[in-house]
Design goal:
Layout: E1 2-6, E2 9-13, E3 43-47, H1 53-63, E4 66-68, H2 70-77, E5 83-89, E6 100-110, E7 130-139, H3 148-161, E8 166-174, H4 178-186, E9 190-201, E10 204-214, H5 224-255, H6 259-264
Length: 265
C-alpha cells in the first residue's frame, strides 16, 4: 500500500495498477456494482448533501482502487473547502430516486500556491487569482455513455467561469489511462505537461499528465496573444527610438546652417 498527498487530500492505494490490467488503473471509471439505467432515465444534477455520505463512500470504493480518508468525504458532503456536484436518476424505483449515480468533487486553490503557477500569466494588480482543481470524477457503470461525465465537467467549467479571479480548471490523469486522456482532450482540455514518477504504487513509479482548461481570459505566459503583444510593443519602442534620433539630428542641423558651406569649401 502506498500513500500520497495530492492538493491536501491523502489517498492510499489498495491495488497496484498494471498497464495490462484495467482494474489497476488509478483513475479508472469502472464500477463493480451492477446498476443499470432505465430506458428513459430522469437525470438530475444537484449539489452533494450530508445524507449522501454512505453512497459517496461506496461509489468511490467501487470506482477507484484507492482509499480516501473519512475526513475527505466529510469535507465533500459538508462543503468544507470542497465544492461537489452529484447526479441522481429520479426514475429509479425502490426509494433510490435521490441516490447518487455519479459525482465530481473540486477544490479552489490559490494560483500562486499551485503546481502550475509557472504556466499562468499573472496580473500583478490581482494577487488573489485562483484555480479550480478536479479531485474526483465518477459515474456508475450502468449510466455511462449518456453524457453525464461531460455534463459534470461542464458544470465545473461554468462554476470556475463565474469566479472572476479564477484562471483555469486543472486535474491529473495517470499516463496510461487512455480513455480518460481522450475524454479530456475531447472536452478541450490542454495536456500541459507530463509529470515524471508522479505516482508511486506497490514499489513502481507511474507518470501523470496534467490537463488544463483556461477560463476568464486565463492564458499561458507564452500564449500567441502575448507573443504578438510583446513583438508589437518592441516594434513601437524601436520606431519611437528611431524617430527621436532623427528629430535630434534635424535640430542639430538647424542650429548649424553654415556646416554645408564649410564642408563644400
Amino acid at each position: 500500500m502506498c500513500h500520497r498527498l495530492v492538493n491536501g487530500i491523502k489517498i492510499s492505494c489498495i491495488c497496484a495498477p498494471n498497464t495490462s490490467n484495467l482494474c489497476g488503473r488509478l483513475m479508472r471509471e469502472h464500477s463493480m456494482v451492477d446498476i443499470k439505467a432505465p430506458l428513459c432515465p430522469n437525470i438530475v444534477y444537484r449539489r452533494i448533501q450530508p445524507y449522501d455520505f454512505e453512497v459517496l463512500v461506496r461509489i468511490h470504493h467501487d470506482l477507484f482502487p484507492i482509499t480516501y480518508e473519512s475526513e475527505f468525504f466529510r469535507n465533500v458532503v459538508y462543503g468544507r473547502d470542497i465544492v461537489a456536484w452529484g447526479v441522481v436518476d429520479r426514475s429509479r424505483l425502490g426509494g433510490h430516486g435521490d441516490e447518487l449515480i455519479g459525482f465530481v468533487t473540486t477544490r479552489i486553490i490559490p494560483a500562486r500556491e499551485s503546481e502550475i503557477g509557472d504556466m499562468l500569466s499573472y496580473d500583478s494588480s490581482r494577487t488573489e487569482q485562483v484555480l479550480v482543481y478536479i479531485l474526483t470524477l465518477g459515474v456508475e457503470e450502468g449510466y455511462r455513455n449518456l453524457g453525464i461525465a461531460t455534463s459534470l465537467i461542464q458544470k465545473v467549467i461554468e462554476y470556475a467561469s463565474c469566479i472572476p479571479t479564477c484562471q483555469a480548471v486543472y486535474l491529473h490523469v495517470i499516463a496510461y489511462n487512455e480513455p480518460a486522456i481522450r475524454f479530456y482532450q475531447k472536452m478541450s482540455f490542454m495536456c500541459a505537461r507530463r509529470l515524471q514518477n508522479f505516482y508511486y504504487i506497490q514499489g513502481q513509479h507511474y507518470d501523470s499528465y496534467l490537463f488544463l482548461y483556461y477560463v476568464n481570459g486565463g492564458q499561458s505566459p507564452c500564449s500567441p496573444l502575448e507573443i504578438v503583444t510583446t513583438v508589437a510593443a518592441y516594434v513601437r519602442s524601436l520606431l519611437k527610438s528611431l524617430a527621436a534620433r532623427l528629430w535630434k539630428n534635424e535640430e542639430r542641423y538647424q542650429e548649424c546652417p553654415n556646416v554645408k558651406k564649410a564642408v563644400a569649401f
